Amino acid sequence: MKISPKIRILALSLVLLSSSITALIAFWGHTTMIANLQTEALERNTNNQINHLELAIREISHDIKLLAGLPLLREIGDLYETAPQSPILDQDLSHLREIFRETLEAMPNYSQIRLIGKKDSGKEIIRLDRIGTSIEEIQESDLRQKGHRDYFLDTPRAMSTKPYFSKIDLNREDNFIEVPHRPTLRVSLPVFDSSDQFFGIVIININFRPFFEKLFEKILDRYQIFLTDDQGNYLIQPDSTRTFGFDLGEDYRAQNDFPELGDFFDSPRTQITFRLDAFSTAAGDLIHFQKFQPFENSRTLALGSAAYFDDIAQTSASINLQVISLVALLIAIASLFAFLISTKLVRPIQRISRASKELKKGKIQLKLPTDRDDEIGDLARAFSDMRESITRNEDDLIAANHKLSEANKDLKHFSHISSHELREPLHRIAGIINLLKFEETPAAQKELLRDAENECVRAIQQIADFRAFSRIGEDTLLRETVDMEAMVKKILENFTSELDRRNIKIRMDPLPSHSAYPNLIYVLYRNLVENALKYSKGERIVLYFTAETTETETIFGLKNTGSSIPPEKRDSIFDLFTRLDKNRPGTGTGLTICKRIVERHSGRIWAESTENSTHIRYTLEKKNHANTESDQ
């Protein structure tokens, strides 16, 4: 990618990044603020609900104190012990019944008021019940003994005591739970005769669910209210069938529905707030539980509130939409500004880029921003100087190439003449030596004549090899896709007799086809085979044609057993006229020609060797060329 679009992309990326970070910070800040406000509102509302409930409990406490403090009760206490059949007692009891009735009529959530004496196992003296919408006095024959009940036994017997509040549980009659269930809170105080002797208790039963719902009727459309005891057992919750599990033999506890409450009831923490998940049994977004002690006997309850914040969520969504719209507008404006600035910045760079392209085409007269005093101006001036330097160097190179071309022509002519002039005398000398061999001469001289003839033949072959070596690269060649495996098999046909005579084994990797110059590849493999056959010795000779393909290139090679190259000679064997064994035939040009052919392909060649093997490996140019491509 060019630098101009990179600069534009970078500028736009910075704009988008900064705008996105700004938007995320704004969104996170707004969301956090809304969440904090929701939590604070829920905690404040729960605290208000607790205050409201505690106020209602204090009113109940006031009512029981008012009833227990009636002077009439002292007179009843005196007569109840000493003159139970007294008409005055009947009159006092009748008067007390009217007071109880008036209290029940004034307090619709009071379900029962009783006077229970200590005589006769705590038998009820007066009992008024609310049955439906009416208030009924229970006849003496239906009055029950309550001395065994917890609320009678636990009511303190001392004067000036605080009211006793029972546990909130399901009301029982004759030791059976009433049906339908009626959650009941009982509050009582002891009563005394004129001599301050305890003779019984006054007790009010509160129908707790209507009492509770009446207190919170104005907020139940937005909040779900939960009330538990100090163990987490539900006393009040939206599903009334899942309350008072401790009375019904069921495990209806808040921590079963809200795992976050796990150890809350056993810990010293007084409050906890958490968000409701999608599978919660409670409706709403947020829930808060808070412990409190509404009764004067220090018993702990926990009030929970689950709140809906749909209106706040809608307002928050509207604000978020406005923020997103504003950020989108800012991004558009900033992107346009960044595009204009980046365009201004890259324009001189584009001019330099166009100038380089024009220079590549050979156009010299180019206008560059050399008058700028910044880095781009420095680059333009450097480019201008480079252009002038290229022009001068190009002129020098043209002149040098012309001189080199003339020199090559002279060298080629000299090579042709010298090779011809050298071969002719050598051929004549060889002919004379051949004639002398037929003359009667001593055996020692015949041996010298054979050596002289061999040296003439070797010299003629060296001249021919040198001529072949110098001609590599002269002609125009075309690259083709060469079937390397077929090429090797074709070359091996020329050596069949020697391979069979020496019982040489041939092994071959799968040789991939490759773009190359077919004629040169033929000469390359022929020379490699000749070199391997010439220097290998011993039995069980193997010629192994190798090929290894990597991510970047294919490495071909020929490995033979029966020969070895010393480490210090593995580079010099490719030099012209280099022979490792002077006693073997050859001119020392075979591997040099191989190296020249590989370099013509822009490849590389090297030797690897062990004590009993030699591996000549080479690479060809990996880039594929079209069949029409030529190489000079």
UniProtKB/TrEMBL annotation:
<dbReference type="InterPro" id="IPR050351">
    <property type="entry name" value="BphY/WalK/GraS-like"/>
</dbReference>
<dbReference type="InterPro" id="IPR003594">
    <property type="entry name" value="HATPase_dom"/>
</dbReference>
<dbReference type="Pfam" id="PF02518">
    <property type="entry name" value="HATPase_c"/>
</dbReference>
<dbReference type="InterPro" id="IPR005467">
    <property type="entry name" value="His_kinase_dom"/>
</dbReference>
<dbReference type="Pfam" id="PF00512">
    <property type="entry name" value="HisKA"/>
</dbReference>
<keyword id="KW-0472">Membrane</keyword>
<dbReference type="GO" id="GO:0007234">
    <property type="term" value="P:osmosensory signaling via phosphorelay pathway"/>
</dbReference>
<dbReference type="GO" id="GO:0005524">
    <property type="term" value="F:ATP binding"/>
</dbReference>
<keyword id="KW-1003">Cell membrane</keyword>
<keyword id="KW-0418">Kinase</keyword>
<dbReference type="GO" id="GO:0000156">
    <property type="term" value="F:phosphorelay response regulator activity"/>
</dbReference>
<dbReference type="GO" id="GO:0030295">
    <property type="term" value="F:protein kinase activator activity"/>
</dbReference>
<feature type="domain" description="Histidine kinase">
    <location>
        <begin position="417"/>
        <end position="624"/>
    </location>
</feature>
<keyword id="KW-1133">Transmembrane helix</keyword>
<feature type="transmembrane region" description="Helical">
    <location>
        <begin position="321"/>
        <end position="341"/>
    </location>
</feature>
<dbReference type="GO" id="GO:0000155">
    <property type="term" value="F:phosphorelay sensor kinase activity"/>
</dbReference>
<dbReference type="InterPro" id="IPR003660">
    <property type="entry name" value="HAMP_dom"/>
</dbReference>
<dbReference type="InterPro" id="IPR004358">
    <property type="entry name" value="Sig_transdc_His_kin-like_C"/>
</dbReference>
<dbReference type="InterPro" id="IPR003661">
    <property type="entry name" value="HisK_dim/P_dom"/>
</dbReference>
<dbReference type="Pfam" id="PF00672">
    <property type="entry name" value="HAMP"/>
</dbReference>
<keyword id="KW-0597">Phosphoprotein</keyword>
<dbReference type="GO" id="GO:0005886">
    <property type="term" value="C:plasma membrane"/>
</dbReference>
<keyword id="KW-0808">Transferase</keyword>
<dbReference type="InterPro" id="IPR048760">
    <property type="entry name" value="VP0354-like_sensor_dom"/>
</dbReference>
<dbReference type="InterPro" id="IPR036890">
    <property type="entry name" value="HATPase_C_sf"/>
</dbReference>
<protein>
    <recommendedName>
        <fullName>histidine kinase</fullName>
        <ecNumber>2.7.13.3</ecNumber>
    </recommendedName>
</protein>
<keyword id="KW-0812">Transmembrane</keyword>
<dbReference type="InterPro" id="IPR029151">
    <property type="entry name" value="Sensor-like_sf"/>
</dbReference>
<feature type="domain" description="HAMP">
    <location>
        <begin position="343"/>
        <end position="395"/>
    </location>
</feature>
<dbReference type="Pfam" id="PF21623">
    <property type="entry name" value="HK_sensor_dom_bact"/>
</dbReference>
<dbReference type="InterPro" id="IPR036097">
    <property type="entry name" value="HisK_dim/P_sf"/>
</dbReference>
